Amino acid sequence: MLTQNILFDTMISIYALSLLFYFSDFVDASRRAKRVGTGLLVFVWGLQTAYLVVRVLNQSDWSLISRFEYLFFFSWLLVTISLAASRFFRIELLVFFVNVVGFAVLTLNLFGSTNENIPLEPWELVKELLIVHISLIMGAYAAFTFSAIFGGMYLFLHRQLKDKHWSRTMRRLPSLESIDRYTFRTALIGTPLLILSLAVAVTSLLVEGKTGLLLDWKVFSSLVAVVFYISYVIKRTLLAQPGWRTARWNVLAYAVLILNLFLNSVSRFHYWT
Questions:
Q1: Higher confidence at residue 64 or residue 31?
Q2: What is the rounded average pLDDT for all residues in the chain?
Q3: DSSP letter string over the chain?
Q4: Which residue has the higher pLDDT, 227 or 111?
């Protein structure tokens, strides 16, 4: 336990230091700060990966998953994708804001209760479906997090250009057209993942005869989130609405998704209380 606590403290400290260097690069466009921040973030990724590998090797029953493991993997996923985005797209602001989210998730998770389990309904005949459901939903949350951050960037840049407020930060952002494209593509990745994860969960309920849980708040709020993101895709493609409107709708859809996460406290679907 002492070794584990040292690992967590080290992980949090290095992660925070990495964000400080990224913020320094964000403010002053320092290439040296960016290199140091990236190096520290890679080290954090390595610690997270090593910890996850050990947990996977020691996991004997996949019908149960703890909230700690769920959120830890989500934080690891954000770090992984942000490093890839930094390598191929070189959008420093994206990496910074995504890792602010990742750091918040990891910190709240590590300083919360690590012994609290989420007994996802133990449908003995569909354990493999549960693994698929968890994988899909985490992928969807990661994609939507990126999409919401891009949407926020679009709204910020649109407002600054509209008000003719020029700044160094604006020059470091991609064009509105590029940001809109990134927002749409990441949402387009997350939407089918969310739909598929919900479909797998509903199928598992039907197979196990747990049809009563179909009326649970968790299922209803997940459907609402799906509707919001499908509406975003329709507004962006078929209706061809202005970019600032679709970006605002995208951010609103993400807020609904986050609300869906907090509804676990009143849901019987995951028993997160």
A1: 31
A2: 78
A3: -HHHHHHHHHHHHHHHHHHHHHHHHHHH--HHHHHHHHHHHHHHHHHHHHHHHHHHHH---TT-EEHHHHHHHHHHHHHHHHHHHHHHT--HHHHHHHHHHHHHHHHHHHTS-SS-EE-----GGGHHHHHHHHHHHHHHHHHHHHHHHHHHHHHHHHHHHHTT---HHHHHSPPHHHHHHHHHHHHHHHHHHHHHHHHHHHHHHHHHT-GGGGGSHHHHHHHHHHHHHHHHHHHHHTS---HHHHHHHHHHHHHHHHHHHHGGGG-SSS---
A4: 227
Whole-prediction pTM: 0.74
CB atoms within 10 A of CB 254: 24
> pLDDT at residue 30 above 60?
yes
In contact, 72 and 4? CB cutoff 8 Å: no
Residue type, 238: L
Q: Please state the rounded mean pLDDT for residues 218-239.
A: 86
